[in-house]
Design brief:
This protein is α+β, with helices and mostly antiparallel strands and 491 residues long. It is 58% helix and 17% strand. Strands 2-1-6-5-4-3 form a 6-stranded antiparallel beta sheet, sandwiched between helices. It has a 5-stranded mixed beta sheet with strand order 8-10-11-13-12. Strands 7-9 form a two-stranded antiparallel ribbon. Strand 5 (136-144) and strand 6 (150-156) form a beta hairpin. The chain is rod-shaped, with a radius of gyration of 57 Å.
Amino acid sequence: MKHSIKKQMVITFMAVMTGIIALCWIINNLFLETFYIRNKAGAITNAYIRINEAASYGNITSEEFDLELRMICDTYNIGIVVIDAESKTIKSSSRNVETLIKRLYDNVFAPDSKMEYLEENDRYSLAASMDKLTLTEYIEMWGVLDNGNMFFIRSPIESIRNSVNISNRFLGYVGITGTIISAFLIWFATGKITKPIMELKDISEKMTKLDFETKYNSRGINEIDLLGERMNVLSEALKKTISELKTANNELQRDIEKKDELEEMRKEFLSNVSHELKTPIALIQGYAEGLREGINDDAESREFYCDVIIDESSKMNIMVKKLLDLNELEFGNDVVVMERFDIVAMIENFLISAEILIEQNNIILKHKAHAPIYVWADEFKTEEVVRNFFSNAVNHAAGDRVIEIKYNLTKDNDTNTVRISVFNTGEPIPEEALPHIWEKFYKADKARTREYGGSGVGLSIVKAIMESMNQQYGVINYTNGVEFWFELETK
């Protein structure tokens, strides 16, 4: 791979480590010597402060101070001498007392012009100097304590430049070794990081080929696992979207294929309308010609002829209206308005308007009072379904001539529904006719349908309305009658 993250991480780490080591080497060269000298000067200044305090409190010769002074001198490799006005030694930490005293006097009375002063005030002087005999560098402090005694403190400076060189070489060896070892460790460590990334890469390649079956096995540890989980979600979303697109495409293909079928349906519709209107038109024409030719001159015959014409015209008008309504429903031109209403109250209001129809047909109505049931549906279309079922029940009621309207509530985890059923006593529908009763112009009993003026369109309208609201409907045969039903959602 041209730009491997694994290689990039190792190269970046090695570059950073090399830069840090080089920076440390430069800092060592520039500042280590100065830092070392200042550290020595600080140790000497602290020693002076303790000696001055001990001299001021008069315990400079005590055993406790001897122990403390020895620890300071051993820790920082310091030599100390304190003398009084008569050059008598009061405190010394070195066997070479005479050397220290001589050096004190030299610094006080004949200072070296090449001496490098680090600090100077009215109490003491601090400077870096060179012993001309031994060629050893020292940091020296001399002056007068608060009690009037003179003091001299010095500490040899090891070959700081040599130490800096040694330190730099050691830093280089350690840095190079550490960088190489770390590079190998990072090479293997990054493998654990790049492995899931490569897995995601393979999954993405399969997704480009519309293969969504492979999933990332997330361990839920870091951001890469989170990305993998998101990739799984994306995969499912793409899979669902493509499925929906394929479904839509399939539906489009079906719509194209049905284009010719719609034309056939139009022709069939016109044929059925022509067939259904042929009989009433022939009757109207025949009776109208009879009136014109005066076949019967008596008033009673003329009135009978006129009643037939009016009755047939009314039937034609109703049938045309129903056909237009059915046409609107089947072609989806009628908008379904979903609203919440009380189905019990709606049916009660309908039954009040149908009282005359019930009395004229000697119907025994059974409809128990029920608590309000609120449903989601198109109220106008739902009333049309009830009207068609009830009219159908009235026209086919026989025997005891009972019509019963019932409500059956159903509750489950997904939906709550109510089933409204309209039962009428009479002859069951023939089994061979059951699959066809919802078809346009189908009449199970043509003679009876003709008798009450049925058009064979009512149940087709029910079918179209219920399917437009995506709800269930059906019919049940009983030995003593027939029950038509439909369902609506209550939540």
